Amino acid sequence: MDTFPRLLLDHAARRPGAPALREKAFGLWQTLTWAGLADLVQDLALGLAAAGLRRGEHLVVVGENRPRLYASMLAAQALGAIPVPLYQDAVAAEFVFPLNNAEVAFAVVEDQEQVDKLLELREQVPQLQRIWFDDPRGLRHYDEPGLAALDTLIDQGRAGRAERPGFFAAEVAAGQPGDVAALFFTSGTTGNPKGVIHTHATLIDRARAGQRFDKLTPDEEVLAYLPPAWIGQNIFSFSQWLAVGYVVNCPESASTVSIDLKEIGPTYYFAPPRVFEGLLTTVMIRMEDAAAPKRWLFDRCMRLARRVGTRLMDGQPVGVWDRLAYALGDMLIYGPLRNTLGFSRVRVAYTAGEAIGPDLFSFYRAIGINLKQLYGSTETAVFVCLQPDHEARADTVGVPIEGVEIKLSASGELLVRSPGLLKGYYKNEAATREALTDDGWFHTGDAGFLTAGGHLKIIDRAKDVGRLHVPGGGPHDGAMFAPKYVENKLKFFPHIKEAVCFGDKREKVCAFINIDFEAVGNWAERRNLPYGGYTDLAGRAEVYELILDCVEKVNADLAQDELLAGSQVSRFLILHKELDADDGELTRTRKVRRGAIAEKYGVLIDALYAGQVSQHIETQVKFEDGRTSMIAADLRIVEARTFPAVKGQAA
């Protein structure tokens, strides 16, 4: 079973009535069995073939996680064509490069929103001839050449079965493990995205390696709610789904994810740190609104959990009285809290994409959730390092798993060799040669090192790690500056949503901060502080005092690490708007575009380092419907206390 279509047909033959996919529609969960899915894929493949899709060509797929979009990807693979998932929340202009780069003529999309985007681009992407949509709402009166409902394509394929009875089986049989299975476009933090080519062999190999590592079975339940274009979601809800045969559940909408999470109760869960941050922020807001006795009980139980819970999760010895107290806390607080979060059945939970704050990581493990970290990237088919049970640490990302070799270059950059490496970058030989060595090593671009226990520790992106430069010398002259490390510490606080730090080749570290509008808004309302929106709330003196306290706590923590004590934040400001992917400040996976932010807000950076106490700024923002507007504000700049390094301490 060495291609995805063959894996599908194997499940359909062995377990025809077992659930493969569930989708929530109109409040009810609808189940698609493996046999039903195989029939749907065959109809779609015959329809696509009749429309002209050929082996080696590309099919763009855009939308939320939907069973018929997954089936469309499998149908393309059955024909030897290559699915190209794109981010559904991207603006139309972001589709132009991948559509033209991959010479895409066919697209399957979810709904009216995605149809409108592609129709808007027809002059820029003239080769895009056919568009099929899954959800017909709002599209009844559309009369565009090449536009049709996915139902029409399915009907055409079903009608073609009698005419070409052996066609589908022959196409699936012609597929080879070395054939290209998918094309993933990277987030493009520094220019146009790169198309990462993965074969069936690379994706299936890593999916099976992860399966063996965590002993996954077909009984697992997964909730697919992150963008399918992100390889993290794709590996868990497509590649590993087909390799293992578990059930993937598709939420009704983004707004119902928290409800659907509790209804499904997944056993295998994956989310980037920002999702875990958001869940914890919601918990803390609710506890702040709770009655005093409940807050007292919660605080008391959480102190016990921080002391005992992580030791229990790590299999360490715990005294009888502590076990009894924790069991009581589990009955009163931890169990109900896991149920509220939707994690009551989670057996394995992973976070990846960026570093997670140590306190955030410990919180989930302390309440009995087996949260672990993994390390990987689009180019490595995700699974490079994973944390074994009882060896989960906040400051590492696990050990190299089956088939993986890692080493460090002279500059400290991490290199990886694995059966899951990309075949190359699409139409970009220069980038491929730069990333892959002749003997099969991939340059990750990450700086890190191996601990004495064999765990990998990532410091930051290698290109972002810098050094402070203090004119005339000083205790921190030449000290390491790792911006992401500092930013993650700041973002642990529920009141801070995003942070961007500056300091390379400068005498001190300064920062931009985005407040979490929901958390700070709730905090302000409980103190009867009026505000008229994000900009107004972010500029209040009381909010600056709140954030100042967070910054100084991070500084005190950094002072304990002699290597990074120089990275303490000396001055900061609270941005007047949230950083947004639509404004080019974040990628679609919410990674900071440092270069774009430095260029766009250069006047603010200059003000931070010039010692000014305020700075006027006017910024253009873009709305989802394409309209633009200007936001102007006078931003305060605040000094934060820094602390002397504690000698002899290092992370």
Q: Could you characterize the architecture of this molecule?
A:
This protein has 651 residues and is α/β, with parallel strands linked by helices. Among the domains are: 268 residues, Rossmann fold (3-Layer(aba) Sandwich); 174 residues, GMP Synthetase, Chain A, domain 3, CATH 3.30.300.30. It contains 21 helices and 29 strands. The strands form eight sheets. The chain has a five-stranded parallel sheet, sandwiched between helices. A five-stranded mixed sheet has the order 12-13-14-15-16, sandwiched between helices. The chain is globular, with a radius of gyration of 26 Å. The two termini are 45 Å apart.
Short structural summary:
With 651 residues, the chain is an alpha/beta fold. It is 38% helix and 21% strand.
